[in-house]
């Protein structure tokens, strides 16, 4: 099921090739330019300033949080603030200890190594990383079997910035080796409005406060989505309006792309409509719900559900998925228990 014209979800948190290209142009270069995450910024500023004053390499940093909140951007800012180069890789790309050894042995002193999706790194590589982070050393195994020997290879001091969307999957020995850990929160609408205004200026697009608020309110608390919606609204304004973005233009544009006032797209609404109209609000099993909307179980569970749960529109229970009163209200429907005038799952 396509969520909007073109077959890709405008409200998907993951970055596609277009997003990565645009993000590179829109990405802030200094900590003072970074919008939102006030607590994280203040704490990280202290860590980096103290390291610079000591003339030392910054402590290893672990950033956790949902996709699209700025973990990659912060890693680049850390490198820029420390005046150091940055090397970027990801957990899935490191499936053998030798892959990690090759990267670590080529690092320069003070270099920042950004390891995205660090929770998906292989276990042998994880164990090698423990020693590298703590002792700045890797043991290179030469030979096989009983005759194999470990040759220690000294590494220059470096800063590892690990990013994860699932901090709970990190083994404690790895998590404990980070000197600074931070959790990235979803953005408030006012912060997203600032993101939209900043990005609009860089894209040379005129957007008024009401237009920025309209886009921010449908961005699911995520700057990446705000920037993506801004680009699509810009296209609509260029073709269907005078090129500037006001509230009405933004609203009409996002209606075309089927992103509603709360940021739900067609997939989200399909899940809610099936839950409400076909199963009376639940409870219903995940597999049954996925079949009802014509999607894979994993798609419903990993793509649609997290936002619906966060918005208070759906609840996970031991008996299955259940719609909340807010879900009925959002779709303009009346819960069956209220229709019958009887107390039930939703009270009454």
From the structure above, extract its key features.
348 residues; alpha/beta; Rossmann fold; Helicase, Ruva Protein, domain 3; Arc Repressor Mutant, subunit A; 3 domains; 5-stranded parallel beta sheet; two-stranded antiparallel ribbon; 15 helices; 46% helix; disordered N terminus; disordered C terminus
Summary of the model, kept short:
GO terms for molecular function: ATP binding; four-way junction DNA binding; four-way junction helicase activity; hydrolase activity. This is Holliday junction branch migration complex subunit RuvB. By secondary structure, the protein is of the alpha/beta class.
Q: What portion of the residues fall into strands of 2 or more residues?
A: 5-15%
Please identify the structural class as seen in this structure: alpha/beta
Largest sheet: 5 strands, parallel
The total of beta strands comes to 9
CATH fold-level label of the largest domain: Rossmann fold
Helix content: 40-55%
The ordered H/E elements are HHEHEHEHEEEHEHHHHHHHEEHH
Mean pLDDT score: 85
Unreliable segments of 5+ consecutive residues: 1-7, 339-348
How many separate helices? 15
Sequence of strands across the biggest β-sheet? 2-3-6-1-7
The separation of the N and C termini measures 36 Å
How many distinct folded domains? Answer: 3
Shape: globular
Which value, in Å, is the CA radius of gyration? Answer: 24 Å
Given this structure, which CATH class of the largest domain is correct?
A: Alpha Beta
CATH architecture descriptor name of the largest domain: 3-Layer(aba) Sandwich
The CATH homologous superfamily of the largest domain: P-loop containing nucleotide triphosphate hydrolases
Catalytic activity: ATP + H2O = ADP + phosphate + H(+)
Region (Head domain (RuvB-H)): 261-348
Subcellular location: Cytoplasm
Region (Small ATPAse domain (RuvB-S)): 188-258
